[in-house]
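Run log // design_07
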């Protein structure tokens, strides 16, 4: 026996040392993900989108593709001669900035004489360095002075502000996530030692996931953006801590039954690993369904997050058990479990009482909780899906937002970011006339052959490339507004009707339109597939059909209730203008996949106990022994996703809030009350058509007789 214990210790030591070596190699990559991230919306569009085709055509009309930065100067009392001299001096310095494409067009005065606007084309090849170019432009302007306000806006200004936001992922977001997990683990375990093991394992999971994501993104196998990077951070730490809580809770139970930690861990691993693997596998498969998305950004998020969960599963089922075996009973100090053969339910007094309450009032409980959740779904009428405008994108003021608002006050709001129309040379004049007649289009001009160094020449010949002409349509509304998107849709309908024009409409607003349309298509395709996949996994795990259908029904009800409650909060508490078009799909994938996690944790244990005790007794025993750990896991996951609020982006705050609220609803209401009460009320038939439904039915009939 001593020899077996010694071999077990050596194995645990070898596993820990091997993982520490892996962590030493992989660790540095967790801080380098921003190096391979890209945040250009156009790069994530479907290849067959009209805006993508327009972008490809635009490449032929310029020597270098550019992203415009719009530098806008405003003096409400009227631009002075001194202001004009300052703008001219700034313009000369802008031309010297590396990455700026020359020659620069002259400043554009507003009709009311209160503003000047300079369009500064930035080389698109700069990539993430566009942010650095914009920062140099902002340094040159020097900000507001003597009543003259200066802002750098436009697509380049927006991208620079986004890059600055996402730069917080490698530092503040990771730090906040670690602190949140640490505090909750200290509260849950009330041990100065035990928290180290799950936190160390979660950190190892993040390092392992980071190295794979970095290498794949660097090789251009997948695209990584700041949003996916932020979600990866909170998902790995949240889900990893969940899996750790489940394994540690089962290990603690087995330490009451076994003398040696190795024997206790072996039994605990056999009991907990199937549920953890099924849970992680469900999340991975659900995330990989995002590969069916027509948006490259969604297709990137799927494998990035799936890699994070896969790495977490591997670490939590190898590295963490080895750490716990080496820690032994002292890891639980000062509440060290003794080998006393105690009933696991004895340590869960409050949950045993909740289980008794469920047994006495099962039908009223599941009926009342279902009604409450159904009432919350009424808030869905307030949700409203839209593409968030630039001024609505951030939770705090930014230079690009301020600048866009100045532009909207003094110019046709689409100035500097026009819609582009590509058509044949023969139909260019007709297409321009049709486009000019579309409501919301302020002006239509062809792109001319020579560089623009003075005021536009209406008689200049248009530039012709491969028989095509590029028209630039200035929109009356801001390019990221709902009004501009409606104009683009109407513009496309109008120009597509021109015979033999083969017109293609692109530009910044068109990218938003195509992104929104693709997001709607993705929801209609991916959501049903995810539900079918989850149903199959649950059926295989529980060896039943009725139970999986009921569980999916409770998760869908919880999801709808969460979105209803969030809609009310977003509109009436946070004062957000709406939700981004990608929000419903992301919320569904994370809430349903993670919500099923807790179903799996609970019902796999209920099934295990039902085999020994009968279904109704198994439901109560499963609830009593898993209630505490599932609640703790839910709180951890909710808290980690809440950390997304560190990033001042509305879409991430909305997603973090939705996942946090949804997980808490799942944990406190659905998994603690609705599912156990429903399963208890149905009884053995819950396992239909499996053998357990018949065997338990006969047993409970005999007990009742």
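design_07 sequence
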């Amino acid at each position: 026996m001593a020899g077996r214990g010694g071999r077990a210790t050596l194995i645990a030591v070898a596993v820990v040392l091997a993982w520490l070596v892996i962590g030493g190699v992989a660790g540095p990559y967790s801080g380098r993900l921003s190096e391979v991230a890209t945040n250009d919306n156009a790069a994530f569009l479907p290849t067959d989108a009209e805006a993508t085709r327009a972008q490809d055509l635009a490449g032929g009309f310029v020597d270098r593709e550019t992203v415009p930065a719009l530098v806008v100067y405003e003096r409400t009392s009227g631009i002075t001669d001194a202001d004009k001299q300052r703008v001219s001096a700034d313009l000369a310095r802008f031309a010297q900035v590396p990455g700026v494409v020359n020659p620069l067009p002259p400043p554009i005065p507003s009709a009311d004489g209160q503003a000047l606007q300079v369009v500064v084309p930035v080389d698109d090849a700069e990539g993430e360095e566009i942010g650095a170019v914009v920062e140099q432009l902002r340094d040159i302007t020097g900000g507001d002075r003597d009543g003259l306000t200066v802002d750098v806006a436009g697509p380049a200004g927006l991208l620079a502000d986004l890059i600055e936001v996402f730069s917080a992922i490698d530092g503040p977001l990771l730090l906040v996530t670690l602190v949140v997990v640490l505090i909750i683990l200290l509260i849950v375990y009330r041990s100065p030692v035990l928290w180290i093991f799950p936190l160390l394992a979660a950190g190892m999971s993040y390092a392992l996931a980071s190295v794979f994501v970095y290498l794949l993104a660097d090789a251009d196998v997948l695209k990584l953006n700041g949003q996916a990077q932020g979600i990866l951070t909170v998902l790995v730490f949240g889900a990893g801590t969940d899996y750790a809580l489940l394994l540690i809770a089962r290990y603690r139970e087995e330490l009451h039954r076994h003398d040696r930690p190795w024997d206790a861990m072996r039994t605990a691993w056999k009991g907990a690993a199937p549920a953890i693997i099924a849970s992680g596998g469900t999340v991975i498969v659900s995330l990989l369904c995002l590969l069916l998305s027509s948006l490259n950004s969604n297709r990137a998020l799927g494998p990035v997050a799936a890699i994070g969960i896969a790495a977490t599963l591997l670490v939590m089922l190898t590295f963490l058990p080895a750490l716990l075996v080496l820690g032994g009973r002292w890891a639980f100090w000062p509440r060290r479990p003794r080998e006393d053969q105690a009933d696991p339910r004895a340590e869960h007094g409050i949950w045993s009482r909740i289980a008794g309450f469920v047994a006495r009032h099962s039908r009223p409980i599941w009926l009342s909780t279902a009604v409450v959740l159904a009432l919350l779904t009424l808030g869905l009428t307030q949700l409203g899906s839209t593409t968030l405008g630039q001024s609505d994108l951030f939770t705090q003021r930014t230079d690009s937002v301020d600048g866009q608002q100045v532009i909207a006050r003094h110019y046709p709001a689409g100035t500097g970011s026009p819609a582009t129309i590509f058509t044949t040379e023969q139909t260019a004049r007709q297409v321009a006339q049709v486009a000019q007649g579309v409501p919301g289009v302020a002006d239509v001009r062809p792109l001319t052959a020579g560089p623009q160094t003075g005021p536009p020449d209406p008689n200049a010949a248009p530039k012709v490339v491969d028989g095509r002409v590029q028209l630039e349509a200035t929109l009356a509304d801001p390019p990221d507004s709902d009004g501009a998107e409606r104009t683009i849709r109407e513009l496309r309908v109008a120009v597509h009707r021109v015979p033999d024009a083969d017109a293609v409409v692109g530009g910044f607003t068109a990218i938003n339109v195509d992104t929104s349309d693709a997001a709607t298509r993705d929801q209609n395709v991916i959501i049903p597939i995810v539900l079918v996949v989850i149903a199959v996994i649950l059926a295989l795990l529980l060896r039943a059909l009725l139970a999986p259908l009921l569980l999916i029904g409770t998760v869908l009800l919880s999801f709808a209730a969460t979105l209803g409650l969030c809609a009310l909060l977003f509109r009436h508490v946070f004062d957000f203008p709406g939700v981004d078009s990608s929000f419903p799909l992301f919320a569904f994938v994370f809430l349903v996949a993670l919500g099923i996690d807790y179903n799996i944790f609970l019902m796999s244990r209920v099934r295990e106990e039902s085999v020994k005790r009968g279904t109704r007794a198994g439901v109560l025993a499963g609830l009593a022994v898993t209630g505490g750990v599932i609640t703790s896991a839910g709180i951890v996951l909710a808290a980690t996703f809440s950390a997304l609020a560190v990033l001042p982006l509305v879409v991430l705050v909305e997603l973090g809030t939705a996942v946090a609220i949804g997980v808490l609803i799942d944990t406190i209401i659905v998994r603690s009350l609705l599912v156990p009460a429903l399963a208890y009320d149905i009884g053995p038939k819950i396992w239909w058509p499996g053998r357990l439904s018949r065997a338990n039915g006969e047993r409970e009939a005999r007990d009742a007789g």
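DSSP finds 23 helices and eleven strands in the chain.
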